[in-house]
Amino acid sequence: MSTTVPSSDLAAAASSGATGAPDTHEAAAGGAYPGDTPTRPGPVRTAPWGADPYADALRAGRGPLFLRRGDGWLLPLDVERWCSGAGSADLSALRRCEGPVLDIGCGPGRLVAELTSLGHRVLGIDVSEAAVARTRGLGGAALLRSVFDPLPGEGRWGTLLLLDGNIGIGGDPAALLDRAAELLGAGGLLIAETAPVDVDERLRVRLDDGRGGPAAPASARDAAAEPFPWARVGTPALLRHAGAAGWRTGDQWGAEGRTFVSLRRPVRERRARADSQSAESANSAPVISSQLPK
Q: Are 8 and 283 in contact (CB under 8 A)?
């Protein structure tokens, strides 16, 4: 079996549009790491962040956009900040990054772009096509993936980023921490942004662009955004979850009203990997092996 994939072949596969074509990034990862294998049999594709309100907000570069609970409670999402350049609070986290970086829930790509400009090897993943497209438009490497999908370089990443509230992904912080431990290399670093209040709650929310309240009839576009699990976790709660799983606390800091925690990967045995990566849609652009963790 070949251990290299010419970049020209990867580019051709990415643009072919053929149904069932192998994911070009997975092909590169398989060539770089023939022993790497997924922990799950195939993609766990989730749809909410591909819904129109989110995609429209990213394309416009502004909100309003909220996470809305069934009782009408709204959590504002800072789309304008996400779509601008990295700010000083972002940089306070990015300067702590070590080795190759995986940005989980990369959104429109400001962190991937900034890390790339700083000379880091970095890959963003997101379940929104609009987010991945915008990240690539900034010159960053990104894949249309959930963190719970098989990913390249599992067990070799130096730093994982869970900023902009992404510690809430999946609605189960303990499960997300467990997955993070699978992705990091020994002694790897997780940098997470926490809620700026002491909270530890599980929610079911949907995306809302502010055009109607909970009593308003659902429009066709609202109906497309199904409720999905989310979590809000403050620093004390995250440290409790992390301590129970064996993570070691690094730094805790605040900047511009935002709060952050860094954690060191727990020492544990890794689960066996299967021998092949899953197929992916043809819109996955090639990512050269230099962008993968060594």
A: no
Alpha-carbon distance of 206 to 69, in angstroms, equals 7
Average pLDDT of each block of 10 consecutive residues along the chain (294 residues)?
Answer: 27 28 35 34 49 87 93 93 97 98 98 97 96 96 97 97 97 97 97 97 92 49 70 98 97 97 85 41 44 63
Task: Report how far residue 153's alpha carbon sits from residue 120's, in angstroms, rounded to the nearest whole number.
Answer: 15
Q: What is the pLDDT of residue 225?
A: 61
What is the per-residue pLDDT across 11-39, written as a single tens digit (0 to 9) for each?
A: 322 232 222 223 433 433 333 322 333 33
The dihedral built from the CA positions of residue 278, 183, 66 and 135, taken in this order, carries a sign that is: negative
Place of tokens 């772009």: 113
CA-based angle 194:94:25, to the nearest 5?
Answer: 100
Query: Please, which residues bridge with residue 232 across strands?
Result: 201
Contact 218, 247 (CB under 8 A): no
In the chain, which ranges are continuous DSSP H helix?
7-16, 24-32, 52-60, 79-82, 88-94, 110-117, 129-137, 173-183, 220-223, 235-244
For 72, the 3-state DSSP assignment is coil
What values do phi and psi take at 159, rounded to 5?
-140, 140
Q: Is 283 exposed, middle or buried (0-12, 13-18, 19+ CB in 10 A)?
A: middle
